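[#protein-structures] MJ: dropping Esterase here for a structure pass
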Amino acid sequence: MQITSHTNYIRFMEEARSDYLEQIDWPYDQLEKSGVISPVVNVNCNYKRTTTYPDLIEITTRVHKVSRVKLTLAYQMTVSGQLVCQAESSHCFLNQAGKIVDLKKAMPDFYQQLLELQKQEL
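AK: finished. structure tokens for Esterase:
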């Protein structure tokens, strides 16, 4: 069975999220150095078509919603221009002790950039 397992899409989203953060000049390791971690709190995938292992899946990532304590990213996955999956992942912001962080206070530049990116997508 050469069909891509549904579980792989979650991994694809993680890789796309890491790449997206690097593209906006906030790589995940920089967040961690600032004392902030951002674990996944929710994932939602709507599978539209099957893919196979040789398929090249292109992923577009965007900021869907941001608040002072939570970020939701949206993903659109396509193969040869055809939609194969629409998904979202939500993440909270925590300090190293596991306490909720107010991103506006802890990392105001990052928070402001996320707000601007969200506005661009509306």
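MJ: nice. The radius of gyration is 15 Å.
AK: one more thing. The chain has one domain: 6-121.
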